[in-house]
Amino acid sequence: MAFLALERVSKHYGAMAAVDDAALTIEKGEFVSLLGPSGCGKTTTLQMIAGLVEPSAGRIVLDGRDITNEKPNRRGLGVVFQSYALFPHMTVAENVTFGLEMRRVPRSERIERVREMLALVQLSVFADRYPREMSGGQRQRVAIARALVIAPPVLLLDEPLSNLDAKLREEMQFELRRIQRKVGTTTIMVTHDQAEALSISDRVVVMEQGRMTQVDAPYRLYEQPSNAFIASFVGKTNLIAGVWRRDGMAGAVDIGGIRLEAPSADFPAGTPVTLSIRPEKILLRKAGEGQLDGRIASRFFLGSQWLFTLETPIGTITVSIPNQGEEPPAEGATVGLDWSPASLRVIASAMAHPGGGTA
Amino acid sequence: MISRPSSRSSSPWLLAGPGALFFAGMILLPLALTVILSFRVYDHATGIKDAYTLSHYIAVVTDEYYLGIFWRTLRVAAMTTLICAVIGAPEAYILARMRNPWRSIFLLVIIGPLLVSVVVRAFGWSMLLGSQGLVNQALQLVGLSPVRLLYTETAIVIALVHVMLPFMVIPIWTALQKLDPMVEAAAWSLGASRFTALRRVVLPQVSLGMLSGCLIVFGLSASAFAIPGLLGGRRLKMAATLVYDEYLHELNWPLGAAIAIIVLVANLLIMLAYNRMVETRARRMLG
Q: CB contact, 8 Å: A3 with chain B?
């Protein structure tokens, strides 16, 4: 049986559904991310689990116990807020001990547990500082320590890394994962950053306009996005509109008279479809040696890789190739584009996100 | 260090000049004159003489009548401050939690009393609290015996609380607006009840706002004139009404000046001591 289950949970504000019929089961010890653009309902979902927002419909079950209508202070879940919400008038140690005090843990045990927790987040020497005297990353760790010291069954993280600068954010991602592995707490993290979600989660839940549209392991989410929105939101991709054709055992897609070989899919011939291909799956060859020719419209050097935009008969295509230490073809040159048909993904156009394109 | 042009260094003085002149002319000068006046000899037959004495101060601090009035002033001001804090803090909290348009409407309701003259409000209260006023009529309706409210300290405190409440609510409300709304939720998630979260997390963070509110309310209450004058009647005097009487009824200006100086110094001492006590603690916590 699942450790934490959302059973058809919805939240309506008037006629607007912030979260619509969300169903999710999470196993003990799992690290699950809720990923989506702002306004997709991911934070509302987290707040419903935390008890800060009351669901309009559905049930939330934690370890066999229905907690749908339980007050937040009775749920005993650890929450790390986006703003950290540290108590500014208390020292780090006082912040961390607060939850234990509320649980009437004896003083000696409190001191011991706070000491252990501060050691875990590597803040032992800062115990007597006030939050205002600490950097963003340190405050972040205080917030994690404060949430974990009460040994919660579930840890909820609301955009925990969004207030940190890029380099620190990367460090904290792995730090977060290390701490989570060590204490083994079931964790749900809300984020709008797909890289963050992919790198540290066991499973990622993609939310769009209040709905959970795909729940998958990071790798599968990236390789097999279930619709065009996810394809473009998780990582970068090229989306090309076309018409499905049967071609013997395999399939093919007709794009304005150009026929591309594609993996077999279960569509009737003539269905409008969207093709998705990741920029890093396309190889650049000499003109005429690939499946298509294209002219390099622009070229950007990103350090570890080169990013190209190419004008081709099927539209503008983005390609990225790793930096091998040699200068690749220059802007204006005509090159061939090649890929393995298996790296094409065919998505029914009805599911494609309106206005979707190269992202 | 780089030396600046001389015109630069005089600009702070020029900028502060008008304010400083105004302050000197309107406050320091009259205050100095009042201090000098308070040491002048007074004779009931001939008026103020050209000699100096400490007798007015000695008379005030040794006379039970004056001391009683000082104690009453202190008591009424302290009571008003306490009640304002007890009512104002929750009021500010509720106001901070409101959404527009309700917040704007209720902010106006809170500031509303300031838009009506103190004299009019005092008369309003005297009508409500009088022996045949609305309060006593209501008490009689539910079968209780009428109580004497008008011309008591209670009446003064009630009316002062009404007038002073905005001065308490607004600084606390300002402090609450700077508060991260999520800290309260954080306290709940850690197992604190709503009340504990308010007491342990919200209240300490608005203590500075409350401190300024208390200082304003105490200072204004201790020197209030119209309300004690109209609701305290002729016999129940407070410091400001006493000074008024000495000046305009007894015509003993030096004694009135001495009382005014004593009230000023006492007020200053109390407020500074309070400020030191609370603020140093709060500053250490909140930075």
A: no
Q: Could you identify the residue written with the tokens 């769009």?
A: A208
Q: How large is the C-alpha radius of gyration of chain A?
A: 24
Contacts of B204 in chain A (CB under 8 A): 89
The domain total for chain B is 1
Please give the residue range of the domain that contains residue B128.
Answer: 40-286
Q: Which of B56, B32, B30, B31 is nearest to B42 (CA)?
A: B56
How far from B25 is each of A13, B17, B38, B60, B258, CA to CA, in Å? 60, 12, 19, 29, 21
Q: Quote the tokens at residue B235.
A: 């016999």
Place of tokens 């202070």: A73
Whether residue A81 and residue B185 make contact (CB cut-off 8 A), yes or no, is yes
How far is Cα A252 from Cα A275, in angstroms, rounded to an integer?
10
Side-chain-side CA neighbours of B271 within 13 Å: the count stands at 20
CB pairs under 8 A between A and B: 73
Q: Count the Cβ atoms, other than its own, within 10 Å of residue B66.
A: 20
Q: Which residue out of A77, A98, A149, A159 would a mutagenesis test of the B interface target, given it has the greatest number of B Cβ atoms within 10 Å? A: A98
Task: Note the pLDDT tens digit of each residue in A31-73.
Answer: 999 999 988 999 999 999 999 999 999 999 999 999 999 999 9
In tens digits, chain B (287 residues) has pLDDT values of: 455 555 567 888 899 999 999 999 999 999 999 999 999 988 888 888 888 888 889 988 899 999 999 999 999 999 999 999 999 999 999 998 888 889 899 988 888 888 888 889 888 888 888 888 888 888 888 888 888 888 888 999 999 999 999 999 999 999 999 888 899 999 999 999 999 999 999 988 888 889 889 999 999 999 888 899 888 887 888 888 888 888 888 888 899 999 999 989 998 998 899 888 877 777 766 65
Show the CA angle centred on residue A216, arms to residues A184 and A243, nearest 5°.
Answer: 170
Interface predicted TM-score (ipTM): 0.80
Q: Is residue B234 part of a domain?
A: yes
Say if A92 is an interface residue toward chain B (CB within 8 Å). Answer: no
Domains along chain A with CATH numbers: 4-228 (3.40.50.300), 233-278+344-359 (no CATH), 283-338 (2.40.50.140)
- Rounded to the nearest 10 degrees, how much is the dihedral formed by the CA atoms of B249, B253, B254, B256? 60
| Lowest pLDDT segment from A204-208, A286-290, A302-306 | A286-290
- The CATH number of whichever domain residue B254 belongs to comes to 1.10.3720.10
Q: Does A17 touch chain B (CB under 8 A)?
A: no
Beta strands in chain B (DSSP E): 40-43, 47-52
pLDDT for A53 equals 92
Residue in chain B nearest A85 by alpha carbon? B183
- Nearest-Å Rg of the Cα atoms of chain B is 24
**Residue A77: which residues within 8 A CB-CB, separation 6 or more?**
A49, A50, A51, A152, A153, A154, A155, A156, B189
Question: Under 8 Å CB-to-CB from A300, ≥6 apart: which residues?
Answer: A306, A307, A308
Query: Interface of chain B against chain A, CB under 8 Å?
Result: 180, 182-183, 185-193, 196, 200-201, 204-205, 285-287
